[in-house]
Amino acid sequence: MDAELFPRSRTEVAPGAVHVPDRLDAGRQRELLEACRDWARPPAGLRTVRTPGGGTMTARQVCLGWHWYPYGYARTVVDGDGSPVKPFPAWLGELGRDAAREAVGVTPPPYDIALINFYDGDARMGMHRDSDEQSDAPVVSFSLGDTCVFRFGNTETRARPYTDVELRSGDLFVFGGPARLAYHGVPKVYPGTAPPELGLTGRLNITLRVSGR
Ligand SMILES: O=C(O)CCC(=O)C(=O)O
């Protein structure tokens, strides 16, 4: 257990954007990790995302419910092996709705998209907005494994002002309302900081969204 001088507590980073430390206990983290390992297997498994400019994202990804590709959604892995996207499980939707309710006091429509991002080596994610959905329901994000710097910015520009938040294994971050279309990214992951008992090398992020489709 961490012996913090100042225990971490729920923080509203911006109106509508809330960090809830330690939302998932060790057992729940292990269950979620096992589920991620299953989802990562082919077909429609973990893949490297290629951007239209010819680049690649360093965080690898697998999707549930709807397949996200730059920049849209499909029912099959149109930029990968062509398989149907894996189903979005009801239990994950319930976890997301409970999390949104607790964090920002909103009961969203049922979640139907999960993006699972895997960061190893020096993977990171540039500043971007989640703007391919047709719903303003809050985005719910869980972290597993290594600690990262999560940069949460403004709705106008990728640049300052932004706030850097340390996300650790088990943390929840929710952004909705006026923060729903804020730029955000992951400039840094700290290798080797995952809780040893979890058994994960690297970082997983599980992001839940409502498609509005
Ligand atoms: O890994 C994270 O915490 C952020 C992921 C993210 O921004 C996204 O999937 O759009």
CATH superfamily: Alpha-ketoglutarate-dependent dioxygenase AlkB-like
Distance between the termini: 43 Å
Count of alpha/pi helices: 2
Rg measurement, Å: 16 Å
| Strand order, largest beta sheet | 1-2-11-8-13-6-3
Looking at the structure, what is the overall shape?
globular
Given the helix and strand composition, which structural class is it? Answer: alpha+beta
Instruction: Assign the CATH class.
Output: Mainly Beta
Attached small molecules: 2-oxoglutaric acid
* Content of β-strand: 25-35%
CATH architecture grouping: Sandwich
Oligomer: single chain
Question: Strand-and-helix sequence, N→C?
Answer: EEHEEEHEEEEEEEE
Describe the structure concisely for a colleague.
The protein has helices spanning 26-39, 90-104; strands at residues 11-14, 17-20, 60-64, 67-69, 72-74, 113-119, 125-128, 139-145, 148-152, 163-167, 172-175, 184-189, 203-209. It has 213 residues and is α+β, with helices and mostly antiparallel strands. Residues 115, 117, 125, 130, 141, 150, 184, 186, 205, 207 line the site of 2-oxoglutaric acid (AKG).
